[in-house]
Give the backbone structure.
Amino acid sequence: MINKGTDREIGKILESNSQIDYICEIYGKNDVEYPPSHSDYKFGQFVSIEKRIENKQIEFVGVIYNSQIVDPEQGRSGPKLSRPEEQNMFYPSYVDEKKTIVGIALLGYIESSDERKRKRHCIPPWTLEVDDIVVKLNEEEMVFFHEIEDEIKLGYYQNLLGVAGQFGKDLLSIIITRLKEKRPKERRSLSLIEKNLEYKKMTEGM
Amino acid sequence: MPLGIALKPGRDANEFIFLTPDNKKLKTGEFVYYTAPIQVKEHGDKEKFRTRNQKIYARVTNRKEHRGYPNEFLADPEIKPKVVANKLGLELENIERYEITAKIIGFYDNRLNDFTNPRIVPRPGTPIKLAPNSDLEKFLTNIDEGVASANIGDLLHRSPGQVNINLPVDSFTSTHLSILASTGSGKSYTCSVIAEELMKPSSRAALLVLDPHGEYHTLKDIERINEFESDDGYSPNVKIWKPRDIKIRLSELSFSDLLSSLDSPTDAQEPILKEAWNQLSSKEYIETKELIKKCKEIGENENNLKSAEALEWRIKKALSRELFHHSHHLSLSELLNPGQCSILQLDTISRRDQQMLVNVLFRKIYRDRVKYEKGRESKLDFPVFAILEEAHRFAPAGGEARSLPILRKILSEGRKFGFGVGVISQRPSKLDDDILSQCKTQVIMQIQNPNDQDAIQRAVEKVGSDLLSELPGLTPGQAVVAGDSVNTPFLCRIREKITDHGAESLRTSKRWRDSWRENARSYDKVIEADQDYGVENRDRYL
C-alpha cells in the first residue's frame, strides 16, 4: 500500500528517453517549501507516479538509476562584481536553473481496483506525462512491490539491466541486498542471484 | 499427440533433428514416427502407383539440450533453478527444449513384411509422434501367420508388458544366434529363456545344450510345469548328461582327431598310425589294444617295428582319457529328438576334451543332417538347434581348437541342412570372426571391454553405433536385439524365466561366514584330554 504525502514528493517528470526510461527534475528550494533531502533521491531509491487511466488507479513504480546536476552558469567567464551572497539578487533566473535531474527506470505498475492491488513487473503499456509528480517509496512499499504470490520476485531484472546500462548490476545488487534484509527466508536464493551479478560485474571484459 | 516438431535434416542422409520439450519419453533407442505422402504400388497392379500418407518410423539416436536454464541458475545445489527463474520473472513451465536426432527406419511395407526407407527426411515443422505400442509389436519382429515365435521379453523403452518381443523361431534357429554379454549381465539367463521358448508346444525343438559350467540343470523343471504341455499329449523331455556319461566312441574319431590327441608323434610314426587307422576305421568298435596291435603289425611289415612300438605308450596315454570309450558314445537317437532338451554337463571335462567332444558330436550331427536333406538314410529327420556356452573355448579367434573347423562349416552351411547354433560368449573379441559374423540374429547385453565392443561392431553390421554406445550402460537383463530375425535393432528387457535360474553368482561372503562358523564349532568340540570320556584321573592330591 503506497501512501502519498506532500513531504514525499521529490520532483516531477521532465522528459523521457523511452517507454520505461524517464527523467525527473528534483524539486529545489525555490520549487517547494520543503525540498527533498539528498537521501530522498539517492541511487536505488524506489519511486512511484500515480495516475488515473481508464477509470483505474495506476501507480507506476520505478527506481532512480542515474543522476545529473545542471548549472547553466558553468563556463561563464568574467569577474563577478557582487559578493556571492548578493548574486542571487542580481542573477535570479540563472540561480533558478541550477537543477538536479535523475533517471528513473520504470519497473512495472500496481493496478488498484475494488480493493485489490495487482502488481505487474513489466513494461507499462501507458506513458507518463510531463510534470507528473514523482513520489518516493519507503522500504515497506518497496518490498510490497516485489511480493508476488508470497514470494519476492524481480521480474523487471532484464529490463532494468537494459535501461540502467553500466549501473544496472550495481543497482540490482543494492536492491537484492535490501530485499534480503527484509525477507531472510529468501536470503539464499536471492544471494545466488546477487553473487551471479557480482561475478559478472567483476569478470566481464577480462 | 505430437511430442516434437521436425527442425532440420541431420548429418547423415537418413537422419533428421526435431525439437521437443519432452524430458522423459524420448530416450536413445525410442521409436517415433511422422506421416508423409509416399507412392505405393496398387494392390494387384504392378504398374499403377498411388500416393498415400504413410507412417514413417525413426529411431532416436541422440539427444542434446537445445535450451535450458543458464548455468548461473545452477550455482547452488540446494536452490532449484526453477526457483531462481521464477524470481527473475521467468515463469514458463518446462523451459527446457531438447534437440533429438532420429534415424529413419522407413514405412512398413506389408508386401515385403519389412521397412522400406523413403530416403527423404521430414519437412521442417512436421509433427513427430511416439510410435504406438501396437505398431511396434507388429513391426519390430517379423512373425508370419502360423510360425512359432519365442517371447523373449518386451521393449525396454516402454512399460513392462506393453510391447512384447516375439522372435521368429524358424529364423534364429536356422540362421544361428549369438548371445554376447559380459559375466553377470544375464547371458545364460537369456539363453535359458530362449531354451524355455523352444520347448513350448508351439516349437517342440530338438535342442542340445553344451553346458561347461553345469548351469542349465534347472531347465529340468520344464517337465513339471503345465505351461509347457499341450492338449495333444505333448510334454517336453529334459535329459541331463553328467560328465561321466559323456563318451566318444573311438571309431567316431577321424585320423586327424586321433593324431591331434597323441603327444607329438614322429614323422615315421604317422604313416604307421594312418595305415592302422584306415584298416580299422570301417569297424563299429575299435579297442585301444586292437589299434596298438595293428600298428605293430604294420610296423613289422614295413620293417619299422621300433616306431610302431614307440606309438604304443602314446596311444595308451591319449586314448585312456575318460572321454574315449571303445563302445559307449552319445547316440544321436537318444540325444536328439523333437520336444527334447538334452543338456551335456561338461564342467569336469578338460578344455581339450570339450573341444574334441564338440568336434566329434557336431560333425556327427552335421553329417546326419546332410544325409537327410540329400535324401539318404539318417537318424535325424528333423532340424537341430545346439546352444554352445562359452563359445570362445570352442571357436577361439586366431587360436587352434579341434572344434573350430566343424563350427566354421556348420555356421556357414548349417542353415541349408537344418543345423542351427546358438553361440554364447562373454568375450566376443576372443571368438573367431567368421563364427561371430555368421550368427544372423544377435542378442547383445552389457559389454564394457572396448576390444569386445570393437569385435561386435566388426561382426554385427546391422547394429547402429548409437545402440552399440548403449552397451556399457545396460543393466543385467537388458539387451540390444538385432539381425535377420528383427526388422530393426532395438533394446529389449529380457523376460523372467519360468524355471529357476542355476547360474547365480557365488555368495562369497556368506560362504566365508558359514565356513568360519563351521571351523569355530569344530574348535569347540576339542575336549581337553583329561576331560574326555573314560579317561582316568591320575592326578595325585598333595
About this structure: The two ends of chain B are 103 Å apart (CA to CA).
